[in-house]
Amino acid sequence: MEQNGFRVTHLYGLxxxxxxxxxxxxxxxxxxxxxxxxxxxxxxQGVNYLTLEDARVLDPESLAPVPWDGRTMGELMLRGxxxxxxxxxxxxxxxxxxxxxxxxxxxxxxxxxxxxIEIKDRSKDIIISGGENISSLEVEETLYRHxxxxxxxxxxxxxxxxxxxxxxFVTLKPGLEATADDIIGFCRxxxxxxxxxDRVVFGALPKTSTGKIQKFAxxxxxxxx
Length: 225
Prior knowledge:
alpha+beta, Luciferase, domain 3, GMP Synthetase, Chain A, domain 3
């Protein structure tokens, strides 16, 4: 995007919070970083908009703030006048969404020492393999760095030994070819081995009319592999 002359502003929001809730406000000190470093900073969801009272990463059970260490995962929660009052005619869903006075987004993330929030996964998309949490987004980010990959999505596949294992669905760039071993080998070079997908499926990814990848469809497909 940068090479094509675009200046990207990274925003985060949900329907329930009336548009953007956070913005990755650019810091001048990031200008001197290499491309990879700048991309890592830009990948963060950032800090809350001034119209939002607060956005924090909290323990979903105790609602205590997680340490700002960039590693401890919790749930991103919001509150303020731009957050909805509730779900129409659904008081039970509203009560669950606002437990403890915060809107529970369902997004899991970390908070960095500078206060910037970085989402790691949707709570329903986290992969639990052998007792270890694996972020599907982290695996997808690695896949997107492969020079032949155009699109990628990772979901949990049931596994008798580990409970769940990552399964990757990949669309290659037009005219290029790669094998499952190529993709798996690349992942092994760039991330912890227990996070590496052990199955790779090539082809077009199912999407909604607005272009969102339908992970629920991929999860069903992964069960049959």
